[in-house]
Amino acid sequence: MALTSTPQTPFGRVLTAMVTPFTADGDLDLDGAQRLAAHLVDAGNDGLVINGTTGESPTTSDAEKTELVRAVLEAVGDRAHVIAGVGTNDTRHSIELARSAQAVGAHGLLTVTPYYNKPPQEGLFRHFTAIADSTELPVMLYDIPGRSGVPINTETLVRLAEHPRIVANKDAKGDLGRAGWVIARCPLAWYSGDDMLNLPLLSVGAVGFVSVVGHVVTPELRSLLDAYLSGDVQKATEIHQRLLPVFTGMFRTQGVMTTKAALTLQGLPAGPLRLPMIELSAEETAQLKIDLAAGGVELTAQTS
User: Fold this and answer.
1) Which of 102, 208, 227, 235 could be a cystine partner for 13, CB 3.0 to 4.6 Å?
2) pLDDT over 70 for what percent of the chain?
3) How many CB atoms lie within 10 A of CB 233?
4) Helix or strand holding residue 85 (H, E)
């Protein structure tokens, strides 16, 4: 797979928000991260988001974040877009992370809405603009009010789209109507950030996905997208419906917990979680196996 992009798809179409593998004693597993990244790109991902929520970014240090981006770039940087999560609720800290990501060669930045401090819309505008001004890298916004407490309003998104380096939005707002309005009014490349809404968001103009379930069903997501883009909406709908048990099962609890469990079941690098995230219980793991199997996911341990 070659590293390609267009103004309409600046980071490709199918991306996975990658977990951060840890060793048994909880340290960063850079070898495991490289093997997992290669596996995900081989499966069909155009890009990987590193140091996002699913990458346990709240509990990794700045140094670990930089090391991880560097390692993944070494493994797949010539074949896939490597997008560094740099969003925090402190603009100066986010700028530091953005500059570190650029220094090691990241292809783009993911910037989540500031969380907990609940800034007004003008504060959001200035925050994202300051990050975009701090490097030469293209920026993907990440709108997830369920985690941040504050949505990026339609007018704010339209204003932000005027910045030459703010080129995309990862939408986890769950509001198809608002998504449709923003897509109609500005050139932001729209990526689904909610796997259950991957197909519906395509219908209002999304160009691709930043997925969690991509850890286990990237080929199916690629097939769904290709079918939709070729005009075979019936086939895309059938794939979506087959994947419903996976979408449900991977989010019965926090996504990184189920993802690491699923990867472990497949013999892929994952390792433990850092508190406050915890391993699935035996009952939760059993339910996850049922959900994945119902969606056609092969759980036989594989080598990587």
Assistant:
1) 208
2) 98
3) 13
4) strand 81-85
Whole-number Cα distances in Å, 165 to 107, 129, 133, 145, 153: 12, 9, 8, 23, 19
Q: At residue 32, does pLDDT exceed 90? A: yes
Which candidate in 65, 142, 173, 260 is catalytic?
142
Answer yes or no: 170 catalytic: yes
Please state the separation of Cα 60 from the chain's center in Å.
17
pTM summary value: 0.96
Could you say which of 170, 173, 228, 260 is catalytic? 170
Q: Which residues pair with 181 in a beta bridge?
A: none
pLDDT, averaged across the chain: 96
Q: 185 phi and psi, to 5 degrees?
A: -105, -10
What pLDDT, in 10s, does the model give residues 249-273?
999 999 999 999 999 999 999 999 9
| Dihedral over alpha carbons 129, 133, 139, 140 (to 10 degrees) | -10
